[in-house]
Amino acid sequence: YNTEIGKDRTFEDLKEKFNAVLVAVGYSKAKCLPMFEKNPYVISAIDFLHNVKADQGSHDVKNNVLVIGGGDVAMDVVTTLKKLGCEHVTDVVYEELSEFLASEKELAGAREAGVTIIDGYVPDAVNGNVVTFKARHIDATYTLTADQIILAVGQKPDQTFGLPMEANEVKEDNYHVDGNVFVAGDITKGDKTVVWAVKKGKEAACAIDSYLGGKDHD
User: Fold this and answer.
1) CA distances from residue 121 to 5, 112, 154, 191, 208 in whole angstroms, order as listed
2) Which range of residues forms the domain containing residue 178?
3) How far is it, in rounded angstroms, from Cα 72 to Cα 102?
């Protein structure tokens, strides 16, 4: 507990001490578009949702918030903003509605909450809290000024502790990746859902049991 691997203890120490090590760190780090780095108006979707949870529903929100991203996490953010009393929530999405990454249920919930959704636009320039977007398929731009900008443009694993391969190389059903190291959860390919997380966890456990001399598993 309360130990940071790679800082308090090395990953090599764990590999030496234990017969098998299972890495299931998930996609805990937020991605950031380069143009938004170190922008004081910008916060990641992960940090925003974490702060809301920590404040137990009493989190103060700005009146005019821009969200960039079109997955389920982005839908969580926009609906949360509305529930917290944000009057103007605008979600600008790279995908067009016909190719949305978010589930139909999540998208319907955002629309029902009164979120403004602008599809088919990509960030082109930013100056503080003013963002200009460029349409993907037509010659058009859209500029929006917001009190806060929340990025929901994807997540990545924390690999600072020394996972022996890149996350996108960890193939589905290949839980044994190197020596006595195994992986499970979102860092393996496949759906990023709770159901799949349980499936991957069980299969990784079976792989470890077999590696340690247990019986074969169907």
Assistant:
1) 39, 22, 16, 26, 45
2) 11-28+157-211
3) 5
User: Quick one: pLDDT at residue 4?
Assistant: 85
For 132, the enclosing helix (H) or strand (E) is strand 130-135
Distance CA 194, CA 183 (A): 16
Same domain, 39 and 23: no
Are 151 and 42 a contacting pair, CB within 8 Å?
Answer: yes
Residue 114 lies in a domain: yes
pTM of the model: 0.77
Buried b (16+ CB within 10 A) or exposed e, 165-204: eebeebeeeebebeebbbbbbbbbeeebeeeebeebeebb
Q: Could you read off the pLDDT of 116-152 as tens digits, one per residue? A: 999 999 999 999 999 999 999 999 999 999 999 999 9
